[in-house]
Design brief:
Chain A is built from 12 helices and no strands. By secondary structure, chain A is mainly α. Chain B folds into 2 domains: 39 residues, no CATH class; 225 residues, MetI-like fold (Orthogonal Bundle), CATH 1.10.3720. Chain B contains 13 helices and no strands. The chains are: A mainly alpha, B mainly alpha. Chains A and B meet through helix 1, helix 3, helix 5, helix 6 and helix 7 of A and helix 1, helix 2, helix 4, helix 5 and helix 6 of B.
Chain lengths: 262, 289
């Protein structure tokens, strides 16, 4: 029994080491955004000047707004289209349904480098070109499968007898959906929406290929800045991004258990 | 299954169409048509835009096979994918095991959430954070020099190990997630039975736990290997001049050299390789479901 306890203790220690590996770089990056030295020199002296100078950076601010706008629109479209599709996949039995479900995997499984360059070629070829609209088209397509998967998972826990009961009590199809099914799947819909927001807000690769100098998103702008050289301003904006996305995921976790204990 | 049949019998399949059409139309326009277009363009001499003359050609594929550079880089990328995947298994699997079988209740939930939290936060920013740690005069350098009595220079930045570290950091949560899900499903009584029948811990691990969690391992490996082979931003930022891989060459064709047809051909070859790998992995995955 003593060995078991030692092993368990080692296991716990190990997990904490993994957490350190995951978080220490991020914490250091965040700390450096509050350090005076533009060359990240120690000793550490507290300042918020890098955050202040972000406000002067019009290019960054406009890219941030683009990112937020695209993420919000992506979320709305994905929630509407994704929930509708999930409902159809849940309710109806038809030929080719399996195929439609399989079609959700390419957007998730194919490396974004391939999807991104393919979109660039195609959008250019058909005259959509690059820019914010193209980025939006791409983001929705990338996020949609996640929403369908998450909402479908929630629908699996739904008892169809409830719909049956509502119908037998005289509710029409619209009322059944609106009053019975939708309230039940709402946690899944909210989680799916937050996923969609995160996919879009953090998306770099596809946006990178589809953006133009004036019409770009925050991660693309940051990549351009990183390649010019590291500055504490990049740390500041990165810190803001990481805090926002982690807060979003914590929110998502409240609505959707990641396949953990049922 | 019985439930779904009941559902089918009471509904008209035709009413599924208006619910499905918008989502799948969108996926067609933004994913499936572009992928088909990419295949088409990869056989062209030039893009049929702005009146430039173009013709069908196999030149772009010939370039891949005749210039050893591309093949070498593809092999380098596959090796990178393999190394990162193996590191993720070594690091992630034990953590998934501890989460699934040692930790209980709230602490398990909290730590699980902490492990997968970075997984959805910005990948670019996390790679940048490693640049802070690894560069000369960075934190790792400073910390080690403060502890060690002699002066050493840790300059991992712009090297192959830096790329590996950054990618493992980015992808290890996938492995923890997929392995945790399969490990958690293993009935504890199976492990106890093995132990009480006289098997050592190692034997139980080898004969019971690892075989039963194989689908999670394979799923995690596929989820990691595929994007790593196509990575270009991570090698660019952390690898510097040593960070030339297959992905960065594709990126160059689209943003620097502007040889889109060649880029399309290189992308399509990568897609083919990826599909073959997923096809190989899928029997193991299907056995799980």
């Amino acid at each position: 029994m003593a060995t078991t306890r030692v092993l368990e203790w080692l296991g716990r220690l190990y997990v904490w080491l993994l957490l350190a590996f995951l978080y220490v770089p991020i914490i250091i990056m965040a700390l450096m955004s509050f350090n005076v030295s533009p060359f990240y020199q120690l000793p550490f002296e507290w300042t918020t000047e890098w955050y202040a100078s972000l406000w002067q950076n019009d290019q960054l601010i406009s890219a941030t707004w683009n990112s937020v706008e695209i993420a919000v629109i992506t979320t709305i479209i994905c929630v509407l289209l994704g929930s509708a599709a999930s409902l159809a996949l849940y309710r109806y039995e038809f030929r080719g349904k399996k195929f439609l479900q399989v079609l959700l995997f390419p957007p998730i499984a194919i490396p974004w480098l391939i999807t991104g360059t393919a979109m660039l070629i195609f959008f250019f070829g058909v005259g959509i070109g690059r820019g914010l609209f193209a980025i939006l088209l791409g983001h929705v397509a990338l996020a949609l499968p996640y929403v369908i998967v998450v909402v479908s998972a929630r629908l699996q826990t739904f008892a169809p007898e409830l719909e049956e009961a509502a119908r037998s009590l005289g509710a029409n199809q619209w009322q059944v959906t609106n009053r019975v099914t939708l309230p039940w799947i709402m946690p899944g819909v909210i989680a799916g929406g937050l996923f969609a927001f995160a996919v879009s807000f953090d998306q770099f690769v596809v946006s990178y290929f589809l953006s133009t100098p004036g019409q770009t998103t925050l991660p693309v702008e940051i990549y351009a800045a990183i390649r010019k050289g590291f500055t504490p301003e990049i740390n500041a904006v990165s810190t803001i991004i990481i805090v926002v996305s982690m807060a979003l995921m914590l929110l998502t976790a409240r609505f959707f258990k990641f396949g953990g204990e049922k | 299954m019985a439930v779904q049949v009941a559902a089918a019998s009471r509904s008209e399949p035709s009413s599924a169409l208006p619910l499905l059409a918008p989502a799948y139309l969108w996926l067609t326009v933004a994913i499936f048509l572009p992928l088909s277009a990419m295949v088409f363009f990869s056989f062209m001499t030039d893009l049929p835009l702005s009146g430039k003359p173009w013709a069908f050609t196999l030149e772009n594929y010939a370039a891949f096979f005749s210039q050893s550079l591309y093949l070498t880089l593809l092999v380098a990328s596959l090796r990178l994918g393999l190394e990162v995947t193996l590191w993720c298994i070594f690091i992630g699997y034990p953590a998934a095991y501890v989460l699934a079988k040692v930790l209980k209740g709230r602490s398990r939930e909290a730590i699980f959430l902490l492990v997968i939290l970075p997984f959805w936060s910005n990948g670019l920013v996390r790679i940048f954070s490693w640049a802070m740690v690894l560069r000369e005069g960075g934190i790792l350098d400073t910390a080690l020099n403060a502890v060690l009595p002699f002066k050493i220079n840790i300059d991992l930045m712009y090297s192959y190990p830096a790329v590996i570290i950054g990618l493992v950091h980015s992808y290890v949560p996938y492995m923890v997630l997929t392995c945790y899900l399969t490990l958690q499903a293993i009935d504890d009584s199976l492990i106890e039975a093995g132990r009480s029948l006289g098997a050592s811990r190692l034997q139980v691990l080898k004969r019971v736990i690892i075989p039963l969690s194989m689908p999670g391992l394979v799923a995690g490996a596929a989820l990691i290997f595929v994007p790593v082979v196509g990575s270009f931003m991570e090698p660019r930022i952390l690898g510097g001049r040593t960070g030339t891989f297959y992905g960065t060459v594709i990126e160059d064709q689209f943003v620097a050299v502007f040889n889109w047809p060649l880029g399309a051909a290189l992308s399509f070859i990568l897609l083919a390789v990826v599909l073959v790998i997923l096809a190989v992995a899928s029997p193991v995955l299907r056995r799980a479901t």
